[in-house]
Amino acid sequence: MTAAKQDDGRHSGSAVSVVAVSCGILLAGRLSLETLMWMGCISISRKTALTLAALASLSYVICGPVLKKTPLTNRLGHLLVERVLNARQNWELDTLRSFCEVSIWLLVVWSTYVGTDGGCFGLVAALTLGTAAGAAL
C-alpha cells in the first residue's frame, strides 16, 4: 500500500472518530435536555438550549488559553486546553465518563440560565458556572 493510500485511511478513520464524538456530544445534550424538561426542572426552548450549548462550548475553548496566561490559573487552563485537544481520544477511551461529563456540564449551563431568569446576567452566570463545572468534572 502506498503512503498516500495509508494517509487516506488514517484521515477517513479520524473523520469517523470525529463524527462519532460529535454524535455522542449531541446525544448527551439532547438526553440531558429532554430529561430536565420531562422532570419539570426547566422550561426552555430547544433553540435557546442549542444556542446556550454552542456558547458554552465556545466559552470552554476560549477560557483554556486565557487561564494559562497567569501562574495562579495556569494548571486549570492547561487542563481545559488538553480536554479540548484530546476530546476524541477521551470519548474513545472513556465513552461513558465523557457522556456523563457532557450531560452534567450542559445541565449546569441550562439550569443556571433558567434559574436566573435568563438575560445578560443569566447568560454570564450560566457560561461561568458551566465552564467551572466542566473543569471540575
Task: Please outline the helices and strands.
Elements: H1 3-39, H2 46-67, H3 74-85, H4 87-93, H5 95-115, H6 119-136
Helix pairs in contact: 1-4, 1-5, 2-3, 2-6, 4-5, 5-6
Q: How does the major sheet shape up?
A: none
What count of helical segments does DSSP give?
6
Shape: globular
- Backbone structural class: mainly alpha
Based on DSSP secondary structure assignment, what is the total number of beta strands? 0
Distance between the termini: 43 Å
Helix content: over 70%
User: What pattern of helices and strands is seen along the backbone?
Assistant: HHHHHH
Strand content: under 5%
The average pLDDT is 81
Query: Uncertain regions: pLDDT < 50 for 5+ in a row?
Result: 1-11
* Radius of gyration over C-alpha positions, nearest whole angstrom: 17 Å
Description:
The protein has 137 residues and is mainly alpha-helical. The protein has helices at 3-39, 46-67, 74-85, 87-93, 95-115, 119-136.
Key words describing this protein structure:
6 helices, mainly alpha, 137 residues, single chain, disordered N terminus, globular
